[in-house]
Design goal:
Aconitase, domain 4, 7 strands, four-stranded parallel beta sheet, alpha/beta, 163 residues, three-stranded antiparallel beta sheet
């Protein structure tokens, strides 16, 4: 697992350049352009299960879906940040991308530190230190586990039909 570390105010244009907004809409079209202006190595080297650690206001900017779709498509396990822009946070829930607010863990992380995430218990371990974050509501976890709001809704409708 690779830890990708970024600073404050990483906006949606940094995550996915706006110049591609109307030409890239599928995950396969989006993936090669992820973070291309901020970190040209990201799209080529990111692997499923990698984590992003970032500062304050991650995902600020416009409300485009492509940044979240792309991060989800490349298999980012979670983004751990000091804080998130609200519209990005909601879009991430819709797409099933796990976001964790844990400022202490972000501040403690140094390049090369091992990081593990225990969502069920609300902890992030950085090196030998463990930090708590507010446990996510079971509904948000269920949406993320299902792969996003649409798959979650379909699953719920199927369950209701079976009753």
């Amino acid at each position: 697992m690779t830890i990708w570390k970024y600073g404050d105010n990483v906006n949606t244009d940094m995550l996915f350049p706006g110049k591609y907004t109307y030409t890239c809409s599928t995950p396969d079209e989006i993936k090669p352009h992820l973070l291309e202006d901020l970190d040209p190595l990201f799209a080529k080297n990111v692997r499923e299960g990698d984590l992003i650690i970032a500062g304050k206001n991650f995902g600020c900017g416009s409300s485009r879906e492509q940044p979240v779709l792309g991060l989800k498509a490349v298999g980012i396990a979670a983004v751990i940040a000091e804080s998130f822009a609200r519209i990005f946070y909601r879009s991430s829930i819709n797409q099933g991308l796990l976001l964790i607010e844990c400022p202490e863990a972000v501040k403690a992380y140094k390049k090369g530190d091992p990081v593990s995430l225990d969502v069920a218990n609300g902890t992030v371990t950085v090196g030998s230190d463990t930090f708590s974050f507010p446990k996510l509501p079971k509904e948000i976890l269920a949406i993320c586990d299902a792969g996003g709001l649409l798959p979650y809704t379909r699953l719920r409708l199927q369950q209701k039909k079976k009753r």
